[in-house]
TrEMBL record:
The lineage of its organism: Eukaryota, Metazoa, Chordata, Craniata, Vertebrata. Gene3D superfamilies: Rhodopsin 7-helix transmembrane proteins. It is a multi-pass membrane protein. The keyword Membrane applies. It is found in: Cell membrane. InterPro entries: GPCR_Rhodpsn (IPR000276), GPCR_Rhodpsn_7TM (IPR017452), Olfact_rcpt (IPR000725), Olfactory_GPCR (IPR050516). Keywords: Cell membrane, G-protein coupled receptor, Membrane, Olfaction, Receptor, Sensory transduction, Transducer, Transmembrane, Transmembrane helix. PANTHER family: OLFACTORY RECEPTOR. Belongs to the G-protein coupled receptor 1 family. It comes from Gopherus agassizii (Agassiz's desert tortoise). One of its GO terms (cellular component) is plasma membrane. GO terms for molecular function: G protein-coupled receptor activity; olfactory receptor activity. This is Olfactory receptor.
Protein backbone atom coordinates (compact mmCIF):
# COMPACT_ATOMS: atom_id res chain seq x y z
CA UNK A 1 0.00 0.00 0.00
CA UNK A 2 1.27 3.45 -0.82
CA UNK A 3 -1.36 5.35 1.15
CA UNK A 4 -2.06 5.47 4.88
CA UNK A 5 -5.27 6.81 6.48
CA UNK A 6 -4.51 8.83 9.59
CA UNK A 7 -6.83 11.26 11.41
CA UNK A 8 -9.25 11.25 8.46
CA UNK A 9 -6.44 12.20 6.06
CA UNK A 10 -4.92 9.96 3.41
CA UNK A 11 -1.13 10.10 3.68
CA UNK A 12 1.40 8.94 1.12
CA UNK A 13 3.93 6.45 2.52
CA UNK A 14 5.51 5.47 -0.80
CA UNK A 15 6.35 7.33 -3.99
CA UNK A 16 6.45 5.98 -7.53
CA UNK A 17 9.28 7.27 -9.71
CA UNK A 18 8.68 7.97 -13.36
CA UNK A 19 12.08 6.54 -14.20
CA UNK A 20 14.82 7.68 -16.50
CA UNK A 21 13.65 6.42 -19.89
CA UNK A 22 10.31 5.57 -21.50
CA UNK A 23 11.70 2.66 -23.55
CA UNK A 24 11.70 -0.57 -21.46
CA UNK A 25 13.79 -2.48 -24.02
CA UNK A 26 16.72 -0.09 -23.36
CA UNK A 27 16.73 -0.61 -19.59
CA UNK A 28 19.34 -3.40 -19.63
CA UNK A 29 21.71 -1.38 -21.81
CA UNK A 30 21.50 1.67 -19.58
CA UNK A 31 21.81 -0.48 -16.45
CA UNK A 32 25.19 -1.70 -17.71
CA UNK A 33 26.29 1.79 -18.75
CA UNK A 34 25.35 3.45 -15.45
CA UNK A 35 26.83 0.59 -13.42
CA UNK A 36 30.13 1.11 -15.25
CA UNK A 37 30.01 4.86 -14.61
CA UNK A 38 29.19 4.37 -10.93
CA UNK A 39 32.06 1.91 -10.61
CA UNK A 40 34.30 4.52 -12.26
CA UNK A 41 33.14 7.14 -9.72
CA UNK A 42 34.05 4.93 -6.76
CA UNK A 43 37.26 3.48 -8.26
CA UNK A 44 38.36 6.91 -9.47
CA UNK A 45 37.77 8.90 -6.29
CA UNK A 46 38.62 6.32 -3.62
CA UNK A 47 42.29 5.86 -4.68
CA UNK A 48 42.76 9.64 -4.64
CA UNK A 49 41.46 9.77 -1.05
CA UNK A 50 43.80 6.94 -0.03
CA UNK A 51 46.77 8.52 -1.83
CA UNK A 52 46.22 11.90 -0.17
CA UNK A 53 45.84 10.35 3.29
CA UNK A 54 48.85 8.01 3.03
CA UNK A 55 51.33 9.99 0.90
CA UNK A 56 53.00 12.75 3.06
CA UNK A 57 53.89 15.09 0.12
CA UNK A 58 50.15 15.42 -0.52
CA UNK A 59 49.46 16.64 3.03
CA UNK A 60 48.82 20.19 1.85
CA UNK A 61 45.69 22.37 2.04
CA UNK A 62 44.77 21.92 -1.63
CA UNK A 63 44.94 18.13 -1.48
CA UNK A 64 43.12 18.13 1.86
CA UNK A 65 40.15 19.78 0.15
CA UNK A 66 40.50 17.58 -2.96
CA UNK A 67 40.14 14.53 -0.68
CA UNK A 68 36.99 16.06 0.81
CA UNK A 69 35.67 16.75 -2.70
CA UNK A 70 36.30 13.12 -3.69
CA UNK A 71 34.37 11.91 -0.63
CA UNK A 72 31.46 14.17 -1.52
CA UNK A 73 31.44 12.86 -5.11
CA UNK A 74 31.21 9.26 -3.87
CA UNK A 75 28.51 10.17 -1.34
CA UNK A 76 26.45 12.06 -3.91
CA UNK A 77 26.54 9.31 -6.53
CA UNK A 78 25.88 6.62 -3.92
CA UNK A 79 22.73 8.39 -2.78
CA UNK A 80 21.24 8.30 -6.30
CA UNK A 81 22.73 5.57 -8.48
CA UNK A 82 22.10 2.34 -6.48
CA UNK A 83 18.37 3.10 -6.23
CA UNK A 84 18.31 4.14 -9.89
CA UNK A 85 19.95 0.85 -10.90
CA UNK A 86 17.47 -1.09 -8.78
CA UNK A 87 14.53 0.66 -10.44
CA UNK A 88 15.95 0.01 -13.91
CA UNK A 89 15.46 -3.71 -13.22
CA UNK A 90 11.91 -3.33 -11.90
CA UNK A 91 8.60 -2.59 -13.54
CA UNK A 92 7.33 -0.69 -10.49
CA UNK A 93 9.85 1.97 -9.56
CA UNK A 94 9.16 2.95 -5.96
CA UNK A 95 10.82 4.60 -2.99
CA UNK A 96 9.49 4.93 0.55
CA UNK A 97 8.73 8.33 2.05
CA UNK A 98 11.55 7.85 4.58
CA UNK A 99 13.94 6.81 1.80
CA UNK A 100 12.96 9.83 -0.25
CA UNK A 101 13.51 12.18 2.70
CA UNK A 102 16.94 10.64 3.34
CA UNK A 103 17.85 10.98 -0.34
CA UNK A 104 16.82 14.64 -0.25
CA UNK A 105 19.04 15.26 2.76
CA UNK A 106 22.12 13.55 1.28
CA UNK A 107 21.65 15.17 -2.13
CA UNK A 108 21.26 18.66 -0.70
CA UNK A 109 24.22 18.19 1.64
CA UNK A 110 26.45 16.88 -1.16
CA UNK A 111 25.56 19.61 -3.66
CA UNK A 112 26.08 22.44 -1.17
CA UNK A 113 29.26 20.86 0.20
CA UNK A 114 30.76 20.63 -3.28
CA UNK A 115 29.82 24.25 -3.88
CA UNK A 116 31.53 25.40 -0.67
CA UNK A 117 34.60 23.23 -1.23
CA UNK A 118 35.15 24.68 -4.70
CA UNK A 119 34.94 28.19 -3.21
CA UNK A 120 37.43 27.35 -0.45
CA UNK A 121 39.77 25.80 -3.03
CA UNK A 122 39.48 28.97 -5.11
CA UNK A 123 40.53 30.97 -2.05
CA UNK A 124 43.45 28.56 -1.53
CA UNK A 125 44.65 29.16 -5.12
CA UNK A 126 44.18 32.93 -4.66
CA UNK A 127 46.41 32.97 -1.58
CA UNK A 128 48.99 30.67 -3.20
CA UNK A 129 49.31 32.78 -6.36
CA UNK A 130 48.55 36.32 -5.19
CA UNK A 131 50.13 36.15 -1.70
CA UNK A 132 52.67 33.28 -1.83
CA UNK A 133 54.82 34.66 1.01
CA UNK A 134 51.82 34.58 3.37
CA UNK A 135 50.47 31.20 2.22
CA UNK A 136 51.69 29.27 5.27
CA UNK A 137 50.16 31.91 7.55
CA UNK A 138 46.75 32.07 5.82
CA UNK A 139 46.40 28.36 4.97
CA UNK A 140 47.90 26.55 7.94
CA UNK A 141 46.49 23.32 9.37
CA UNK A 142 44.31 25.06 11.96
CA UNK A 143 42.71 27.36 9.38
CA UNK A 144 42.08 24.44 7.00
CA UNK A 145 40.33 22.48 9.75
CA UNK A 146 38.23 25.53 10.63
CA UNK A 147 37.26 26.00 6.99
CA UNK A 148 36.30 22.32 6.69
CA UNK A 149 34.26 22.41 9.91
CA UNK A 150 32.57 25.64 8.83
CA UNK A 151 31.56 24.19 5.46
CA UNK A 152 30.10 21.09 7.09
CA UNK A 153 28.24 23.28 9.61
CA UNK A 154 26.69 25.38 6.82
CA UNK A 155 25.79 22.24 4.88
CA UNK A 156 24.18 20.56 7.91
CA UNK A 157 22.16 23.61 8.95
CA UNK A 158 20.95 24.26 5.41
CA UNK A 159 19.95 20.62 4.82
CA UNK A 160 18.18 20.29 8.18
CA UNK A 161 16.16 23.47 7.58
CA UNK A 162 14.94 22.19 4.21
CA UNK A 163 14.35 18.72 5.62
CA UNK A 164 12.26 19.96 8.54
CA UNK A 165 10.17 22.09 6.20
CA UNK A 166 9.49 19.06 3.99
CA UNK A 167 8.55 16.93 7.02
CA UNK A 168 5.82 19.47 7.85
CA UNK A 169 4.21 19.05 4.43
CA UNK A 170 1.24 16.78 3.75
CA UNK A 171 1.39 14.27 0.89
CA UNK A 172 -2.04 12.89 0.14
CA UNK A 173 -1.76 12.01 -3.56
CA UNK A 174 -0.74 11.89 -6.35
CA UNK A 175 2.53 10.13 -5.54
CA UNK A 176 4.27 10.01 -8.94
CA UNK A 177 7.69 11.72 -8.84
CA UNK A 178 8.51 13.26 -12.22
CA UNK A 179 12.15 12.21 -11.95
CA UNK A 180 14.38 9.18 -11.33
CA UNK A 181 15.35 10.39 -7.85
CA UNK A 182 13.92 12.63 -5.14
CA UNK A 183 14.62 16.33 -5.60
CA UNK A 184 12.94 19.28 -3.93
CA UNK A 185 11.01 20.71 -6.94
CA UNK A 186 9.56 17.29 -7.80
CA UNK A 187 8.60 16.57 -4.18
CA UNK A 188 7.06 20.00 -3.53
CA UNK A 189 4.90 19.54 -6.64
CA UNK A 190 3.26 16.52 -4.96
CA UNK A 191 2.39 18.21 -1.68
CA UNK A 192 -1.28 18.92 -0.94
CA UNK A 193 -0.34 21.64 1.57
CA UNK A 194 1.18 25.05 1.05
CA UNK A 195 4.83 25.01 -0.09
CA UNK A 196 5.27 28.77 0.00
CA UNK A 197 7.80 28.74 2.87
CA UNK A 198 9.74 25.91 1.21
CA UNK A 199 9.99 27.82 -2.05
CA UNK A 200 11.09 31.00 -0.26
CA UNK A 201 13.83 29.11 1.60
CA UNK A 202 14.97 27.41 -1.62
CA UNK A 203 15.13 30.80 -3.36
CA UNK A 204 17.17 32.26 -0.48
CA UNK A 205 19.53 29.27 -0.56
CA UNK A 206 20.02 29.74 -4.30
CA UNK A 207 20.83 33.43 -3.81
CA UNK A 208 23.17 33.13 -0.83
CA UNK A 209 24.77 29.75 -1.48
CA UNK A 210 24.82 29.35 -5.25
CA UNK A 211 25.21 32.94 -6.40
CA UNK A 212 27.24 33.95 -3.34
CA UNK A 213 29.80 31.20 -3.84
CA UNK A 214 29.87 31.79 -7.58
CA UNK A 215 30.70 35.47 -7.04
CA UNK A 216 33.40 34.63 -4.46
CA UNK A 217 34.97 32.15 -6.87
CA UNK A 218 34.76 34.69 -9.68
CA UNK A 219 36.46 37.34 -7.56
CA UNK A 220 39.23 34.93 -6.55
CA UNK A 221 39.99 34.00 -10.14
CA UNK A 222 39.80 37.60 -11.27
CA UNK A 223 42.67 38.45 -8.90
CA UNK A 224 44.50 35.28 -9.95
CA UNK A 225 44.28 36.20 -13.65
CA UNK A 226 45.44 39.76 -12.94
CA UNK A 227 48.43 38.42 -11.01
CA UNK A 228 49.33 35.95 -13.77
CA UNK A 229 49.17 38.68 -16.41
CA UNK A 230 51.67 40.74 -14.42
CA UNK A 231 54.29 37.98 -14.62
CA UNK A 232 56.95 38.92 -17.16
CA UNK A 233 58.12 35.55 -18.49
CA UNK A 234 55.86 33.28 -20.50
CA UNK A 235 57.25 30.24 -18.65
CA UNK A 236 56.39 31.87 -15.35
CA UNK A 237 52.85 32.55 -16.52
CA UNK A 238 52.44 28.99 -17.75
CA UNK A 239 53.83 27.48 -14.55
CA UNK A 240 51.63 29.65 -12.34
CA UNK A 241 48.52 29.00 -14.40
CA UNK A 242 49.16 25.23 -14.30
CA UNK A 243 48.83 25.29 -10.50
CA UNK A 244 45.17 26.26 -10.75
CA UNK A 245 44.22 24.81 -14.15
CA UNK A 246 42.73 21.57 -12.79
CA UNK A 247 40.63 23.37 -10.21
CA UNK A 248 39.48 25.96 -12.74
CA UNK A 249 38.39 23.15 -15.07
CA UNK A 250 36.36 21.46 -12.30
CA UNK A 251 34.76 24.79 -11.33
CA UNK A 252 33.82 25.48 -14.95
CA UNK A 253 32.32 22.01 -15.35
CA UNK A 254 30.34 22.29 -12.09
CA UNK A 255 28.88 25.76 -12.63
CA UNK A 256 28.15 25.25 -16.33
CA UNK A 257 26.12 22.15 -15.43
CA UNK A 258 24.34 24.01 -12.65
CA UNK A 259 23.47 27.06 -14.73
CA UNK A 260 22.40 24.87 -17.65
CA UNK A 261 20.00 23.14 -15.24
CA UNK A 262 18.40 26.45 -14.28
CA UNK A 263 18.09 27.47 -17.94
CA UNK A 264 16.40 24.16 -18.83
CA UNK A 265 13.87 24.61 -16.02
CA UNK A 266 12.39 27.49 -18.00
CA UNK A 267 12.30 25.64 -21.33
CA UNK A 268 9.23 24.21 -23.05
CA UNK A 269 10.05 20.61 -22.03
CA UNK A 270 12.11 20.92 -18.83
CA UNK A 271 11.47 17.42 -17.44
CA UNK A 272 13.39 15.29 -19.94
CA UNK A 273 16.22 17.83 -20.19
CA UNK A 274 16.45 18.04 -16.40
CA UNK A 275 16.88 14.26 -16.24
CA UNK A 276 19.76 14.38 -18.72
CA UNK A 277 21.47 17.15 -16.78
CA UNK A 278 20.95 15.17 -13.56
CA UNK A 279 22.93 12.29 -15.09
CA UNK A 280 25.72 14.81 -15.70
CA UNK A 281 26.12 15.90 -12.09
CA UNK A 282 25.24 12.50 -10.58
CA UNK A 283 27.61 10.38 -12.66
CA UNK A 284 29.61 12.18 -15.35
CA UNK A 285 31.04 15.03 -13.25
CA UNK A 286 32.09 12.77 -10.31
CA UNK A 287 33.74 10.49 -12.87
CA UNK A 288 35.66 13.32 -14.54
CA UNK A 289 36.80 15.12 -11.35
CA UNK A 290 39.44 12.53 -10.30
CA UNK A 291 40.65 12.31 -13.90
CA UNK A 292 41.08 16.08 -14.10
CA UNK A 293 42.96 16.23 -10.79
CA UNK A 294 45.27 13.33 -11.59
CA UNK A 295 46.06 13.46 -15.34
CA UNK A 296 48.10 16.70 -15.21
CA UNK A 297 49.31 16.26 -11.62
CA UNK A 298 52.76 14.68 -11.23
CA UNK A 299 52.51 14.45 -7.43
CA UNK A 300 49.23 12.52 -7.59
CA UNK A 301 50.63 10.24 -10.30
CA UNK A 302 53.72 9.54 -8.19
CA UNK A 303 51.57 8.77 -5.15
CA UNK A 304 49.38 6.44 -7.22
CA UNK A 305 52.46 4.56 -8.52
CA UNK A 306 53.83 4.07 -5.01
CA UNK A 307 50.56 3.10 -3.35
CA UNK A 308 48.87 1.31 -6.26
CA UNK A 309 51.79 0.01 -8.38
CA UNK A 310 49.46 -2.25 -10.37
CA UNK A 311 47.48 0.74 -11.75
CA UNK A 312 50.31 2.37 -13.73
CA UNK A 313 53.40 1.19 -15.54
CA UNK A 314 56.60 3.18 -15.88
Amino acid sequence: MTLLTLHNHTRVTEFIMQGLFDHPHHQGLFFGLFLCLYTAVVMGNFPIIVAIVIHPPLHTPMYFFIANLARVDILFSSSVVPKMLENLLQDKKTISLAGCIMQLFVLTSSLVMELLLLTVMSYDRYVAICHPLHYVKFMNKEICIRLAVSTWAVVTINSFVHLLLVLHLDFCGPNLIQHFFCEFPAILALSCSSTYINEIMMFMADIFLVMGNFLLTLVSYSFIIITILKIQSSKGKQKTFSTCFSHLLVVTLYYSTMFYTYIQLTSSNPLEKRKKVAIMYALVTPTLNPVIYSVRNKEVKLAMKRIFPFTTKS
